[in-house]
Amino acid sequence: MAEEPDDAIGASDRVIWSPFCPAQRSDCMPKTITTSKRRTVGFLKARLAPWQEHAALLGFSNPELAEVQAAYDAARDALREAELARQRAIAATAAFDALGEKAEAAARKAVRRIRFTASTSPDPAAVYAAGLIDPPGRPGPKKEPPVPATPTELALTLDTQGRAVVAFAASRSGGAVFEVQRQVEGAGPPGASGAARAGERVGPWELAGTTLTRPFVDGATPSGVATVYYRVRARRPGAASDWSAPVGLPMGVRPHTD
Predict the structure, then answer these.
(1) Residue 222 and residue 211 in contact, taking contact as beta carbons nearer than 8 Å
(2) Would the pTM count as exceeding 0.90?
(3) List of residues 6+ apart from 138 with CB closer than 8 A
(4) Rounded to whole angstroms, how far apart are CA atoms 227 and 5?
(5) Cα separation of 84 and 87, whole Å?
(6) How far is it, in rounded angstroms, from Cα 157 to Cα 225?
(7) Domains of the chain: which residue ranges?
(8) Quick check: 29 pLDDT over 70?
């Protein structure tokens, strides 16, 4: 590391009154003094000899210069000690880092030896206890996967091809996919053979499809019915949300009321 110049006065310097200016008179010439202690030592080193040579011209008394000289000598010696201590600390830290790595490697090797000995011992617990090493832990209970949030904001529309478009709000966080189910409301006359009765939802919910994207387009949208209902849930491996509240899509077929 390069040493700073002994007489380096820069932007960090400040102007103060000379300590030798009686009562800080306005006609007293200010002195430029660095705010860095290290630079102050260099500042004094470069000036003490000229100040002593021209003491009378500069207005210094012998006690004043002796005081400055003593302060400089003490600060210079302390700076040298600080530099030596810093260099020793750097060297000591580097040595510790190197030796610490060797100690870590030796500790890992010793632990491997104890574990190997325990694995071949009829009483592994005694080996671990004597070595003050924790035995391998048993695997804990398998964590249940987090349940994904239930889709919300279901909205149904028909596209130009007469297919139901199921829009909803949901997150794919954790790799969720979305299952869409449908159920129809019949439009046939009451008691008609094989037909849904008016105003009656027919049969169980059936899977319309599974999707990774939104919205979902039902390519097999039923026709000839009064209303198609849809609901959606999110699913991850081992966990599924609740079904959303069903939403109905009128299909333009009026229920038979006779």
Answers:
(1) no
(2) no
(3) none
(4) 90
(5) 5
(6) 16
(7) 1-140, 152-250
(8) no
